[in-house]
Every structure is written in structure tokens, then in C-alpha cells.
Design goal:
single chain, Arc Repressor Mutant, subunit A, five-stranded antiparallel sheet, 9 helices, globular
């Protein structure tokens, strides 16, 4: 068994474990985005999840650059992830320089950020579409069929986990719980800013420090972020996963 096969198996186990236990949606999908980069050799990965109102939100990204591009996609209301979610079908474009008619604003922004090809895969179970997975590459090249199948399998398992979680909630609780999960991202962004400022880190390093503290102390990422924002957790006490940025 190769190291990538072992990592794929481990990722599927981690996703499946969340089918029967309460879990942190943001952490689950961030792990999925990170593993997609490691397993598939793509440059960046991100996920959008539909809220109770049916609108997509950015829920997880493998990098800050990817997160900002996905936010741009939502703001301009065009791009592969939106198209994938709306149609329920995979969307592929191996050369974004030829996509300026299809997605005029998004294609230019993606290329400006160094991305030149994209795969968007639906998070879908039968007719229920909960979101989409975005995979970007800096090169003009597509992902091979084996890679696409692996990515779709991971997205499918994550979809089942999310739907299973929804099924355990009463309908009146569903709206609050899903809104909380999506709004958690806002709190995390605030915490990232605080940690970055107090520890002289960039935003990706600050996020890594938050995640590391949550894992090392068996805490939910959302709870750690909320504690930083409220001041009950001293942000300078977090141990960065990487070295602080150099002062300019």
C-alpha cells in the first residue's frame, strides 16, 4: 500500500467516524480540504455549504488565498462551485484562460491569483445537494479520472456525515444548528485576526495555531475561536504551528 493510499484510507475513516458522533462541521471540512491537497496533488481546495436558506457559504479552505477566491465567487455570483451546486453535476475547466466568456469576472480573478484549472464536485446524496467541493491547480491540467473518483468519494462521505447530523435534529433546531455552524466561520475569522495581530502571524499561520490548540487540548475549533474573541483564552498563549512572520 502506498502512502497516498494509506492517507486516503485514514481520511475515509476520519470522515466515517463522524457519522455516529457529534462533530465540528468546520473542522471536518477543513480537514477534507487539506487532505484533498495532499492526496490529489491539487494546489488548493475549498468547500461551500448551503445554509438553511439555500444560499452557499464558504465553510472551509486549504489556504487563505483559496478562501478569498471563493468569497469572490459568491460575491460575483459566478464560477464553477456555484454552477456545480446549481446543476448537481461536476464542473471541469482545464484552462481558465478560455473561460472568460463562461465566468468573465471569476476566471480573471482566479488567473490573477495563479490558478489555471478547476474541478468542482457536488456534495450530493441522491437529489439532496448540500454543497460543493472546489479543486484548483496552478497549472493548465486536469485531474486524472482516479483522482476525481477519490475526491468524489470523500465528498460523498462528508455529505452523508452532514445529512446524518441534520437527521438527528428536530426541524426547529435544524435552522439554529446549521446557522450556528455557518456563522462559526465569522467567529473563526475574528479569532484569526486577533491571533495574527498578537502573535505577528499571517492569517494562515493564525488559523493553524487555532487548529493546533484545539486538537492538542481536545477542544472544538469553534469553542477555541469563541474563547479568543471573548478574551477568556489569551491569544498570545497559543502555540503557533509555524514560525511567526518576520517584521518588515
Amino acid at each position: 500500500m502506498t502512502s497516498k493510499q494509506a492517507l486516503l484510507g485514514d481520511t475515509m475513516v476520519l470522515l466515517a467516524d463522524n457519522l455516529v458522533t457529534d462533530f465540528d462541521v468546520v473542522e471536518l471540512l477543513t480537514m477534507l480540504a487539506d487532505r484533498c491537497v495532499s492526496l490529489l496533488g491539487v494546489s488548493a481546495a475549498g468547500l461551500m455549504l448551503a445554509g438553511p436558506d439555500g444560499a452557499l457559504r464558504v465553510i472551509a479552505s486549504s489556504s487563505e488565498q483559496m478562501r478569498l477566491l471563493e468569497l469572490f465567487e459568491l460575491q460575483t455570483d459566478e464560477g464553477p462551485c456555484l454552477e456545480c451546486f446549481q446543476t448537481g453535476n461536476a464542473v471541469t475547466h482545464d484552462d481558465l484562460s478560455s473561460a472568460t466568456v463562461r465566468w468573465p469576472k471569476f476566471a480573471r480573478e482566479a488567473i490573477a491569483n495563479g490558478f489555471h484549472s478547476v474541478h468542482a464536485l457536488p456534495m450530493r446524496l441522491r437529489g439532496n445537494i448540500v454543497g460543493a467541493l472546489n479543486l484548483f491547480q496552478t497549472e493548465v491540467a486536469g485531474i486524472d479520472n482516479e483522482g476525481v473518483r477519490a475526491a468524489q468519494a470523500l465528498a460523498d462521505i462528508a455529505t452523508i456525515a452532514i445529512l446524518q447530523y441534520r437527521a438527528t435534529l428536530e426541524s426547529h433546531e435544524l435552522m439554529d444548528q446549521l446557522n450556528t455552524a455557518l456563522n462559526t466561520r465569522v467567529v473563526i475569522e475574528q479569532a484569526k485576526g486577533i491571533v495574527a495581530e498578537h502573535n505577528k502571524l499571517d492569517m494562515e499561520q493564525a488559523f493553524a495555531a487555532l487548529r493546533s490548540h484545539a486538537r492538542n487540548n481536545n477542544l472544538r475549533l469553534a469553542d477555541v475561536a469563541a474563547a479568543v474573541v471573548s478574551g477568556t483564552l489569551n491569544s498570545t498563549a497559543l502555540r503557533p504551528a509555524v514560525a511567526p512572520r518576520k517584521s518588515r
